[in-house]
Design a protein that fits this description.
The protein has one domain: Beta Barrel (Porin). The termini are far apart. Strand 9 and strand 10 form a beta hairpin. Helices cover 13% and strands 57% of the residues. The protein is mainly beta.
């Protein structure tokens, strides 16, 4: 087990243990809620030669919120997030252009602070800590990952992303949200920095539990 793997496992254990303690302390006060999250990412690597959020990937996992005041809560999530970049040549491009695609998947642990508006909107910001699950590069459908990332690939193992999001509460259980995130460390190819992950996410949250009552909500 590498040092990075050990640090990531300790981080996951510590955050889940902390969330369990907080949940146990607040359930009696009906301030804790949790449930599944499902959605999709539109991604790019800002700084590479491919423009636009053309790579679509899965965004799924579980999350939990603990209310700390009438209008504020702290959230913790565990997500599988598919990122990357994609280029498909058009008729206007050169005949020499190839179809290229990066598949870069992460196990993420976002930690978020949320403000709850009285009109049913939640606004949040936070940091996400990620561990790489897959790094694949394909050119015209052929896997050329070894040439691009090298063996073993250690450049993109750990990701730290800053993000902001907005969520609309359809009712006390269902919510639909939008999140924008960008990574702090650069993505590396053959040891060279090519840019940062840029991710927009549309997601559905199904939370169960009891949220502290908000006036006029």
């Amino acid at each position: 087990m590498s040092y990075q793997d050990l640090i990531m496992k300790k981080l996951i254990f510590s955050l889940l243990f902390l969330s369990g303690i907080i949940a146990e302390q607040n359930v009696s006060a009906q301030l804790f809620e949790a449930g599944p999250i499902i959605g999709f990412n539109g991604t790019q690597i800002a700084g590479d030669q491919f423009q636009g959020f053309r790579k679509v990937g899965l965004h799924a996992g579980v999350g939990a919120d603990v209310n700390i005041a009438e209008k504020f809560s702290v959230g913790l999530e565990l997500l599988y997030s598919q990122r990357g970049s994609r280029f498909v040549p058009s008729a206007l491009d050169s005949d020499d252009d190839d179809q290229e695609e990066y598949f870069m998947d992460y196990l993420e642990i976002p930690l978020i602070v949320k403000y709850h508006d009285i009109k049913g909107m939640d606004f949040g910001a936070g940091l996400s800590f990620g561990r790489s699950m897959r790094n694949v590069y394909k050119r015209n459908g052929f896997d050329e990952s070894d040439e691009i990332f090298g063996v073993p690939n250690v450049d993109n193992n750990i990701d730290i992303s800053a993000f902001g999001d907005a969520t609309y509460n359809i009712n006390r259980t269902f919510r639909v949200g939008f999140r924008w995130a960008f990574s702090v460390p650069n993505v590396k190819v053959n040891g060279n920095r090519i840019g940062r992950h840029n991710v927009v996410t549309l997601r559905l949250l199904t939370y169960f539990g009891a949220r502290q009552e908000r006036s006029n909500l």
